[in-house]
Amino acid sequence: MSTIDEAGQEEAPRLEPASAATEAGSPALVVATSYGPVRGRREGDVVSWKGVRFAAAPTGAGRWRPPEPPRPWREVADAGAFGPVAPQQRNPLIDLGPGAVEDEDCLFLNVWAPADRSGGPRPVLFWIHGGAYVLGATTQPLYDASSLVRNGRVVVVSAAYRLGALGFADLRSLAAAGSEVDANPALRDILFALQWVQRNIAGFGGDPGQVTIFGESAGAGCVTTLLAVPAAEGLFHRAIAQSSPATSVYSAERAARVARLLAERAGVSPDAPGALGALEQLDAQTLTRAAMQVFAEIPTRAPGTLAFAPVVDGELLPEHPVPVIRRGDALPVPLLIGTNRDETTGFRKAHSPLLPIDGPAVERMFADIAEQRPELVLPERAQLLSAYAGMPTKAVLSGITRDIAFRMPTIWLVEGHSRGAPAWLYRYDWAPPMLRVAGLGAAHATELPYVWGNLPTGHRDVTFRLGGRRTGVELSARMQRRWLSFALGGEPEGPEGSVPWPAYDESRRATLVIDRHDRLVDDLDRSLRAAWGEAVLSFL
Fold first, then answer.
1. What CA–CA distances, in Å, run from 138 to 111, 215, 300, 370?
2. Predicted model pTM
3. pLDDT of res. 27
4. What gap in Å lies between CA 309 and CA 371, rounded to an integer?
5. In the prediction, which pLDDT does 178 show?
6. In order of start, what are the domains of the chain with their CATH numbers?
7. What pLDDT shows up at residue 390?
8. Ramachandran angles phi, psi of 265, nearest 5°
9. Which of 97, 270, 384, 496 could form a disulfide with 139 if both were Cys (CB 3.0 to 4.6 A apart)?
10. What is the share, in percent, of the chain residues with pLDDT greater than 90?
11. Across all residues in the chain, what is the average pLDDT?
């Protein structure tokens, strides 16, 4: 495995070839990575390696700085259990999995691969989890990749990244002259993990030349942001964005205001010469508590915005990604993108502060956009409301919030991206009877169990209490087939007999509506486009 050079320095271990095996056609459970050997676990026809360290602990001098390589190891590291999750405030709606432990030392990834290595290197799916940039983890049982691996014979990687204030706070405005602090630590983490994939995935049976990044919600926001990151070129070759808050990317000036508020809530004077140093001395739990106060406070001060999100720093992210993609200047990789029909119902039911759900908040949101972006031509009130005619007031507000946060950004992106690379647009409409009765419908994130093939089970779960499981199983098979077909380098084709899904273009605007029975609709969003107008609405 590892060797020691003449100067006594440990060298990177020699990578085992993809054909290494413990038995005919099966991968070696011990694989050498560029940092050290790791031992996985085999469960039937799937082998997994969990809790593989891909970066040094981002603690101490590493906090708010780009990730660094870990110290190499010689002994075989056990990769049978997940690593720690990023510090966060626990949310009862997000199951982090049994025994999940929080630790600032959280930069670990997981790999799932077919036990049968025949057929050569397999395409790679690289997952970026969601959670409003402050929650979530790769340890969530929902993201077990066994079903995707079995059904697609792909290799799946999921990687952790720093969350909240530790991953998405730009503290450069609080740093003393000469201090090196990064504006986008979490994006750097994801890029570092993708670089790990390029160097190491062949040893796990994956093809580094066929990497598809995919993510949902904040994870999809990272996906669409990475399309505009020059440093990401060559690290992935296809992209899937499910419910991306693509316009939730902010300026350094706005990030500086959030940084001041974070410092104040953490008990540090933002005007003190050593403000950054004082924040660096705080433990992760204290910072997380302060960050969640800011997380809840920012949307009340500026409806429609998030406290923590990628920052246009002029370096890693030179420009806001939406205009870059609209111009056709993004990385020209095939893109599959879409949203759910009822994105905001869950936020409304949970009284989440993330999205404006009442009239005054929606009015203030538009007023803030007009003040910050006076060059934009905002839709007239009557024009905008024409897309929601006949709907109850609450449904109108929910629809407007849904569309400014998710659907319209997706339309703006697919229009621009389709001019330079193939792109496919969908809308996910299906909901089992219980979710419809509960008033949730096809809410935010409800497509995830079907993509991953991990449908809810157990007597405590109510998802299929009123029926719908058989339809759900069939729908999951179709979605997985389309997602996997795309990742395998082709078009997102469904099983035999499925509705064809042509690429998006601005003449036809074909959209796949994913429902009990999928259907293809030309220009599904015509009324929305007419009501919202041509301006791309976003905050600075």
1. 11, 11, 30, 38
2. 0.94
3. 57
4. 21
5. 64
6. 114-132+166-532 (3.40.50.1820)
7. 87
8. -70, -20
9. 97
10. 82
11. 92
